[in-house]
Structure formats: structure tokens, C-alpha cells
Amino acid sequence: MDISSLSVMIAALLHLGSLDLTENPTVTREMGRISFQLLSFVRMHDDYVGKTVFSGRMIVPDDSQFKSDFDIIVTKLSGAEEISLTLEVPDDEMPVIIKTRITSASEKSELVFVIYTFSKMNIQTTFDINNCKYAIWHKKSISNVQYVAKMSGCGEKGYYSGEKGYYSVDLITRDSTAVHKNRDFYFNQTIRYRAGKPDIISCHINSLAMKTDGIHINKLQFDISSVTVHNLVGTVLLRHNII
After folding, report:
1. Do 164 and 196 have their domain in common?
2. For the chain, how many structural domains are there in total?
3. Domain end: 127, 145, 168, which one?
4. Nearest Cα to Cα of residue 2 among 36, 31, 35, 37
5. The domain containing residue 73 runs over which residues?
6. Domain match, 26 and 51 both
7. Distance between CA 212 and CA 32 in Å, rounded?
8. Which of 83, 106, 127 is the C-terminal boundary of a domain?
9. Quick one: 119 and 133 in the same domain?
10. Is beta strand 215-228 parallel, antiparallel or unpaired with respect to 161-173?
11. Cα–Cα distance between 198 and 13 in angstroms, integer?
12. Measured distance between the N- and C-terminal CA atoms of the chain, rounded to whole angstroms
């Protein structure tokens, strides 16, 4: 970790004021862009057979696995790190949205993107989430664990547009029952914005109380979501698996 990154992390933890900083925090993910890059998406209609073809180009990790609402064809482009992705949807089966999930075990992350079939856009070549960078650190003590994420280059905050960062967690009991009551006692998070943009996102895990009460974390992820309601690819969600 370079000095500037460490300074940002220490400043964030001092701001939250809940951890002993006598030791450096542990790097969970170095600062960098997301591992999936959307390059273009095109919609074309085949009047002869009555279907719509959605065709995209992306850069993805080599071990990526694909799953979509419709049959998907993925082709590795020769001489490049890119893949082409094609979805064919019959007109009489056309939904309002089409969801596709790409997972990578090596990157401990997944990308979910949603095509808005009602969009008037037929060609999209810019994707705001491509510019978004993030890093994650964590710090453990006897009684708690804290994760702090730093976002950079992400868009304006807002409910209907821009990029947002947050943690999602599944808490379960010893018999695998989901925990809904008093969740904030075991897990809570804060989001700090700077100049209208998400900056420092932290979560605090009360690990001692969880152990005492027989509560476990089934899944913990850091998510970055990008929503632009008028785009062909209107929603993009990056999930980084922490636990």
C-alpha cells in the first residue's frame, strides 16, 4: 500500500473513530477499476424472423461465467482481450428488462447488467461505471471487524442516476435462519460523500456480540450500482465478494 492510500485509509478510520490504529489495516483489494469493462451494446431487429438481437462487446476476466434470462452466445474475439455477447429475443417473448450475470472466481466479483427494452437508444458506447475505481481495507480487533471502501472516479449521487457504493450482508443463526431483527446491532454501515460523490463507505461488524448470540455472516459483499434510466443498458451492478 502506498503512503497516499494509507493516509486516506487512516483518515477514514479516524473519522469513524472505532478502531485501534497501532497496526496498518489489511488490504482486501488494491485501488483499481472494476474487472469488467462494457465497451458497446447494439440493438437490431430482424423483421423476417420476428426477433430482436442485442449484441455487446466487453472485456472480462478469463474465467468468467455467463447467465442470462435468454440464451446467450459468447465468443472470444481473436487477437484481443474482448468478448462478444449476443442475445436473441423473439418479439412475442420480449420482457421489459433482460438481466445478465457474469461471475469471476479469480476476481471474487460479479457483474449484473440490465437491458431496458423500452429504451429508445439502439446503440450505447459509454458506460459510466467503467471509470469507477475502488479499494477495500479491513481491520480486526477482539470485539469487532471494520471494512472501509474508497471509491474514486464515480458519478454523482442520486436515487435515479449515478454510481452508489454500499455493503450487502446476509446474517444467519446456527440453524441457518435469516436474521432480520436487530440487524443494526450486529452490522451497520455509513457512506460519506465528497463534492456530491460517494467517497468513503465503511461497515462495522460487532463480531463479539454475533459470537455470543450465535449469529454468523453467510455473505458480505461490496456493491457499486450505476443506474441511468434512459440508457439501453440502464442498470449495472458490480458485486465484490468479501465473505
Report:
1. yes
2. 2
3. 127
4. 31
5. 37-127
6. no
7. 37
8. 127
9. no
10. antiparallel
11. 16
12. 22
The answer to whether the CB of 71 falls within 8 A of the CB of 89 is no
Strand, helix or coil at 48?
coil
CA-CA distance, 107 to 35, in Å (whole number)?
A: 7
What pLDDT tens digit does each residue of the chain (243 aa) get?
444 444 444 444 444 444 443 457 888 999 998 899 999 999 998 888 888 999 999 999 989 999 999 888 999 887 667 899 999 888 888 889 999 999 999 999 999 999 999 999 999 999 988 888 899 999 988 889 999 998 887 765 444 445 678 888 889 888 888 888 888 888 988 887 776 666 788 999 998 988 898 989 999 999 988 888 889 998 999 999 998
* DSSP-assigned letter for residue 109: E
Cβ neighbours for 187, distance < 8 A, ≥ 6 positions apart: 169, 171, 203, 204, 205, 206, 217
CA 99 to chain centre: 15
**CATH label of the domain that carries residue 191:** 2.60.40
Rounded-to-integer distance, Cα 120 and Cα 135, Å: 35
Indicate if 141 and 119 belong to the same structural domain: no
* Report field, pTM of the whole predicted structure over 0.85: no
Are residue 185 and residue 107 in the same domain, yes or no?
no
By C-alpha distance, which of 205, 173, 209 is closest to 189?
A: 205
Do 109 and 90 form a contact (C-beta atoms < 8 A)? Answer: no
> Which residue is listed with cell 472505532?
18
| Residues 136, 20 share a domain | yes
Q: Does one domain contain both 173 and 235?
A: yes
Residue 155 C-alpha cell reads as: 458519478
User: Domain check: are 143 and 119 in the same one?
Assistant: no
